[in-house]
Amino acid sequence: MHGNQRGDDRGLNVASDGGARLALTFEHRGDRLIGLGFVNGVLNLLTLGLYASWAKTEVRRKLWSFTRINGEPLAYTGTGRELFLGFLIVFFLVLLPIIACGVAVGLIFAGNPTALTAYQAAIYVLVFLLIGNAKYRAQRYRLSRTQWRGIRGALVGSPGRYGWTYFWTIALPVVVVAGVAISVALAVNQSAAAITLVAGLIAALWVLPWRANKLQRMMTADTRLGNLALRYDGSSGPLYRRYFFAWTGSALTIIAGIAAVLYVVISSGSYQQWVVDRTPPSPQEIAILIAIGLSTLAICAIITAWYRASQVRHFAHHTKLDNAAFHSSVSGRGLAWLFVSNWLLTVLGVALGLSISGVLLWFIGMTPGLPTEPVTLPVASALQGFVVLAPIFIMTTAMSTFAHFRTTRYYVANLALEGTVNLNAILQSQVARPKRGEGLAQVFELDAF
Amino acid sequence: MPSSVSNKPHSEGHYARYSDGKTAGARDANVALTSRGIEITLDDAYGNFVWPYASLAAGEPLRDHAVDVLLSSREVPGASLFVPGQSFAAELKHHAPHLTARAERWRNARPWLGVTSLIVGFFALIYAAGWSPIRTIALTLPDSWRDRLGEQAILSMTDGYKKCSAPDGVAALKVLTERLSKVSGTGRTFDVVVYDWSLMNAFAVPGDQIVITKGLIEKSQSADEIAGVLAHEMGHGIELHPETGIIRAIGLATAVELMMGGSSGTLANFGVILAQLGYTRSAERKADLQAIRVLREAEISPKGLGDFFKRVADIEGEREGPTSRMRGFDILRTHPPTAERSELVRRQSAYPSTPALDASSWRDLKAICSVTTETPKPDKRETKPTEL
Known about the structure:
- The structure holds 2 protein chains of 2 kinds.
- The longest helix of chain A has about 35 residues, at about 375-415.
- Chain A has helices at about 35-45, 50-65, 80-110, 115-145, 160-185, 190-205, 205-220, 240-265, 270-275, 285-305, 305-315, 330-365, 375-415, 440-445; strands at about 20, 25, 65-70, 70-75, 75, 145-150, 150-155, 225, 230, 320, 325-330, 415-420.
- In chain A, β6 (about 145-150) and β7 (about 150-155) form a beta hairpin.
- By secondary structure, chain A is α+β, with helices and mostly antiparallel strands.
- In chain A, about 65% of the residues lie in helices and about 10% in strands.
- Chain B is rod-shaped and about 110 Å long.
- Chain B is of the alpha+beta class.
- Chain B is built from 12 helices and 13 strands.
- Chain B has a 7-stranded antiparallel beta sheet.
- Chain B starts with 13 loop residues before the first strand and ends with a strand.
- Classes of the chains: A alpha+beta, B alpha+beta.
- At the A-B interface, α1, α2, β4, β5 and α3 of A face β6, β7, α2, α4 and α8 of B.
């Protein structure tokens, strides 16, 4: 359109082979998205969540724009409308049928626990089958909406293939362990089988580095920047040295967590109370169990941070673009702190929200004649509920947007590209862009990005 | 700003980098804001052209202190223009106000604010008109479905407990149930079963079915108390609360999934629970009012119901109503404060009444769990009495 495009990258660091060195930076210039998160919280609340797709899109446009290659920003070209339509379609094609089938099965097989359990299990398997597919589709959508200098990204493989690999690499070990446990149950006794099951599942965690590497290879090999393919040449071998510590630590933590739950249940006589008498556990008891569960997960997340960091570095190191390789300096300490601090931000969001709710309630409490008559009660309840939940909702949205910003900043700021890329040889992607995106991932609440 | 992109101003207009979107290369450009649009002059004499303001899209919404701008235009799909420098961004805002964050947000949120107002208005109207769509659906459910739902609920909640089936006790319970059912106004006789379960509990399930536990019968001091509890649970049945509860739960879950899809699910679920609690408390009040009516028409004293409330209060350790400062936390209750409920009973004017059961029937009812039956399995519903 404007004459022939002569490669003209004056000002760039051009190497002798005609390629350019690319500097990756994260430049937010003081904007930490807290304000945007707050505004999005208010708008989501006022539109009963219908605005969420547009809110998410604006956050992404910011984060993409903060991410720079040689000072020039990435552009996110997706729209709220695309996200919303993608979600609506999946809602009506997947989620609503699942809900409707659940109700129908519940009515037809009323009082037949075996049929209901079988149905539940089938739904779990179906959903798990769809998760890898959903992740792939979400990544495909995002890449197709990511541009640098107008050149689009793309993901050219099949979501079904990725989804199936995602599924069987977990399902197979689990089925094998379950099979062994059942044999033990038949040959020895049930408690030996239970121990076999727990031990087997913990041992099965050893497939994770292999699996992660396999999935990363599929995803990376399918990724294109314009017409240029990314290459991946990593194997899972080097991951296992660090994984040994992560696995040992997590296994001990999980066993300690199970032991703690058993201790609480048995020592307080709760077993008698909950299982035999079927008394619902008291709020304190529920709180203790939730605390044990959450701290087990948190300790695991912190313990595995060093492994996860080494995995990110490994993946980056083995990802090649033209004559360049990625390099990540993400550290275990960094990821552990990111986890803890983002978690504290969530707590802070709830605390801030609750304080605001408290002040508002105090004001309403001062209002004489708060309606308590049965007829007006639903209105009063709705009002009270709104007063309590609205500030929490807004503050947690603001804080989670900030947390999202911090996570992205950490990963991008620690990413570099070493070597050169011949930019003029990268041509625009000819891959058709998906029309709508991410519906599946949204329905399953897969990730925040 | 990395050194790779120089920020030096050109002789006229602003320095920029232009990419045509065909390769990842870029070339220097000079841009100026004119009345027609952005005039782009490429350095190497490939000519100049204009991107009209209305055709522009920005990489991120323009903000007050933007230090650079990434633009694209519908005129040249794929092409992009990166303009470093604060002054250009500030000037552009005046020419293309539709690119500002505020304008974009308003454009995107306005339709949904409208939709939300309509939804809220619609529900307000329904509420004002006193029409309950959920109740309407519940009323159209065929009795066979309601029975089925009820059986399923009973099976799932009493799984593992035996049914109390001492013949004299069952007969006594039948007398009491029929006496109350006759005045319930539903035209159906309630189906009441007792389970050998030490927890003190009673609940109504769809299809006019009620479950009470051995624990509840043991802790009751008179047949009037049992009558009060039964009348209260029948109140739920008359108001179709079990049916509407299920429909509401399904409807709310669906609506929340639809509205909150992809955003913070946990908080939304908490909202659903609170909404449910709100309904539960109002339902309890309605059931109490029905119970009082049923008891009056069956000529049974409401004192039993009041005594029962008091006993529950003693067990819960809640003797006083909540202090006024705690009013805000009423929202977390499933039942109205017990003091309030006892007060409701006390306010009733006196009417002639007879005991709910005679002394010997009451003794029989107390002993209803001396014989128990295995809960029928769904596959073969034969019952086999077992002596305790």
